[in-house]
Task: structure prediction
Amino acid sequence: MTIRPFLPGLGLLLLTSPLFAGAQVSFGPPGVITAAALGAQAVTVADVDGDGDLDAIAASSDDDTVAWFENLDGAGGSWSEHPVSTTVAGASAVIAVDLDGDGDVDLASAAATSGVISWHENLDGAGTSWAAHLVSDSVAGARSVAAGDIDGDGDLDLASASFDTDTIAWHENQDGLGTAWLKRAVSTGADGAMAVLAADLDLDGDVDLASASANDDTLAWYESFDGTGTAWIERTITTTADGAAALALADVNGDGRPDLLAASELDDTVACYRNAGGVNLYRGEIVISDLADGARGVAGADLDGDGDTDALSAAATSGAIAWHENTDGLGGAWTTHPISAAAGGARSVAAGDIDDDGKIDALSAAFDTDTVAWYQNGGDGGGPPPPPEGGPGLDLKPGACPNAFNAKSHGVIVAVVIGRADLDALQIDVGSLRLGRADGEGETVAPIMGPPGPHPQLHDVSTAPSHDAEACDCPASGPDGRPDMVLWFDSEDLAHALELLGLPKGTTVQLELSGELFDDTPFAVDDCLYLVNS
Result:
């Protein structure tokens, strides 16, 4: 894994995976790190215990908690929660940063309810003992915190975004050890400030700030005029990011300048703003996606290992986590690929090689489900995973065998997706289901979605096939204790779409029902029809 920072200890410019450069990407289903982060708001990654692998860190507002989750096996297969603080009232943000310069990972947090910015000292360097230090208790509605050497004195300071007071501020680390802090306002006009980041945006050697504010739909950056944090020039990037919610640093065109990724909730948009240099650094929005329903989180990383920066997004309304492929390598053209639709109320997304396989994985924090999860980057597919090869598991006309079908009939045909240990019928997204021919001829049809008329139902109808069953074998009749998905298809539509009319009488046609589970995992199951009149 290669990490190229803007400044030592600050945000990532490019997280890349050279071991699978150019490979296509598929992400696995959610690997639950915890389902008890009540009101999960934020997630990030760092090697908190210094054992060489990445751990997860989260902030959750409903239980006032900042915690880290130990990656026990170094592969994301087993996790152990370690609370850092349970008094971060309305915890809204957390970052990993070595604030005291002792070589281990400390944390800094924002508390929306109490208006407190704190940092949490990793006392033993292993994450087993922590001390909380107050930075400021006057950041009302604190939504975001960032770190950088803002005054150029060699230690790390903090910056904050206050939603309630519309303030972007920085907090001077006066003694370099994090024991004495002084708050200094940068702007009091960021209406509904949601996000702040710190980096040398104009590449003049000092740390600038950028912000996203929801109530005025504004993204702005603040030039550090003298490099000491005492004088700032505010420059507007856009005032049309409707409900601006999040920012991330990324070099989307590989020119070495820090570009911005942004998420805006009310227009469902993930966008990038390329840094052109000069006074007007950011000169136009490039829409990455305007279908991220309730966009709240964004991050940048080289997810497909091709040397450029892609984007990750979290959509709160739809619960969707997606990655956006930088298809031209310049940030000018993007292709969206779904990762999961199961992150209800998604607030935050992060990237890191959780399983140490050389591929950058994704993480999310989901407010509605209290869940922090990770998604393994398989590097073995293109965008959405390719449809799997079908096999037994579909029961056409249950109770009948062979499944005689009159292609000239005008009724309905019943199809049962048989629930089994590796296919939970309760998790099937019926809107994704399509029935077609296994040989690919013709088109596909969707099930009847009444009422009125038939509609998908869950019943225990058929017995799961054995492991050595063939697609056209007759499934065992009768229930097996697992629910099945019962579907109805219009016979006339089926015959026309699948081009069954005109096939010789007595022909056996293998059909395949394909679809997805709610976590976007694809599946396909097959059965056969025996044509008695075509």
Observations:
- Confidence is low (pLDDT under 50) at residues 1-14, 18-23, 380-387.
- Residues 419 and 425 are 5 Å apart (CA to CA).
